[in-house]
Design goal:
single chain; 232 residues; mainly alpha; 7 helices
Length: 232
């Protein structure tokens, strides 16, 4: 019984998904999606939506779940590119703006280094060359993509996606940020060593110790001789 109820629910959900998509896409084709599709494609898609709606209340009233899923997939193949063009068009300017800010930041960093700013004197010429190369290549990439995108109609699929721009920002940060924020190495002060003082505090030297032992031995050897002279 529980399994049967689950199957019935899944069937109804699949049918409702088709109906909801038809209504939602048709409303947006007359609203926010209108300028992102050509008139010819818009008319064809609108007709397809009407046919699907009529089918739902006629032959599509009682169909297997798979049939509804196939209908929805067919609609999305036409509707999804329009939705994508709308989203990309809305988000692309902000993504390019963020990339531009990053490029300005790292270009200033390179300029400061070339001017021998004391904050960056500890960085090597080799790693700064890598940073400058990455900045220049990223700048060229952005200008190229912006130029190519400006030549496309709004009804065409974009030449560069927001995900591509975000990936370029991440690539730029990965190369430049660790170098720019690398701290100066700390300098440890070596302890001062005073040889003269160390000798004074460490007791007699080896030579002095040897001489002291010799004197003590000599003194011990003279004492018996003196005693014999007194006996004679």
């Amino acid at each position: 019984m529980i399994v049967q109820d689950k199957l019935v629910k899944e069937l109804n959900d699949a049918k409702n998904a088709v109906e909801e998509y038809v209504y939602d896409l048709r409303d947006k084709l007359c609203g926010i999606y209108e300028k992102y599709i050509t008139e010819e494609d818009g008319n064809r898609l609108t007709l397809m939506l009407e046919d699907t709606e009529n089918w739902l209340y006629e032959d599509g009233e009682d169909q297997p779940k798979q049939v509804y899923e196939e209908k929805l997939d067919a609609l999305k193949r036409l509707g999804q590119p329009i939705q994508d063009r709308h989203r990309e068009h809305e988000d692309r300017p902000r993504a390019f703006e963020e990339l531009g800010k990053k490029l300005q930041l790292y270009m200033k960093f390179v300029d400061f280094y070339k001017q021998k700013d004391e904050r960056y004197l500890h960085l090597s010429a080799e790693e700064m060359s890598t940073v400058e190369k990455c900045v220049n290549e990223s700048m060229g990439w952005m200008n190229s993509k912006m130029n190519a995108q400006s030549k496309l109609a709004i009804t065409q699929d974009p030449v560069v996606k927001v995900a591509d721009i975000i990936a370029k920002i991440q690539e730029l940060d990965n190369v430049c940020n660790p170098v720019m924020n690398r701290p100066k190495p700390t300098v440890e002060e070596a302890p001062e060593v005073n040889d003269q003082n160390s000798g004074a505090h460490n007791g007699p030297t080896a030579k002095q110790g040897a001489e002291g032992k010799g004197d003590a031995k000599g003194n011990q050897q003279t004492k018996p001789g003196a005693k014999e002279m007194e006996v004679d």
